[in-house]
Amino acid sequence: MITFILLMNTHIKFHLLLFLLFSIKLLGGDPTFKSELFKSGKLIYFDDFDGELNLDFWGQAKGKKIKDGILTVGPLYKFKEVAMKALKRDHHLGLEPVAHINLIPEKFVMHLRYQFAKPELTPGRPSFQIGHHMINLGIVKDGGHRIKLPDGPSFSEPESEMALNRWIGLTIEYELGKIRVLVNGKGKTYEHEKVTIINPKANGKHRFTFKGGPECTILFDSVRLWDCE
Questions:
Q1: Contacts of 179 (CB under 8 A, 6+ apart)
Q2: Do you find a cis peptide bond into 126, omega within 30 degrees of 0?
Q3: Disulfide check for 224: which of 31, 33, 84, 170 has CB 3.0–4.6 Å away?
């Protein structure tokens, strides 16, 4: 009888320990909403890449793989001739890594950690489009980042230390006419009539686009996205 009670106590303690560890993990991983522009937000996407790829947000799985908590995006084809034969066209051949994050709300807060692994900057690459061919967030050769508004001005932040081959901690808060961009904790809020992610050709659908250019791999290790009011 005593042995049975001891076994039961051990069994209960074991499951209690599992429950506590699981609870701690949830508390540690649950993203907290913080914003300078919005009072509230609904978390619609939260990923640390420890499971299957979310195709609703990332589109096709080809060219992407998840390993050790990292989503890696590479080119679809290595050789132009092979790509042209397979795709039966001479453009958009998938020779550079391209990633899209779809289903971006009209007003949002996003936290993202990513990296462009690449020997050096090449003309126009890498690029990060906030909205389809709209706001561009780029790496500056001398250090830091630059934000280019569509048909509008550019803003540079040399202190952000955005660079190739380094993890980039990015926070974006956006609503029409206003965007807050923090890179590695450095940045500010920009208010301008040209601040928009709305592309008339996109049929009301908004997304982020990452393009790496030659000799590049794009890495992601976390993303949180809130739909805001």
A1: 130, 135, 147, 172, 173, 189, 190, 195
A2: yes
A3: 31
Verify that 134 and 78 share a domain, yes or no. Answer: yes
- For 61-111, the pLDDT digits (tens) are 999 999 999 999 999 888 778 778 887 888 787 789 999 999 999 999 999
Range of 81's domain? 34-228
> Burial letters for 52-78: b for 16+ Cβ neighbours within 10 Å, e otherwise?
ebbeebbbeeebbebeeeebbbbbbbe
Same structural domain for residues 212 and 99?
Answer: yes
What is the CATH number for 46? Answer: 2.60.120.560
Asked whether residue 208 carries a pLDDT value surpassing 80, the answer given is: yes
* CA-to-CA separations, 34 to 42, 104, 138, 173, 222, in angstroms, rounded: 11, 18, 25, 10, 17
Q: Are residues 166 and 204 in the same domain?
A: yes
Total-model pTM: 0.84
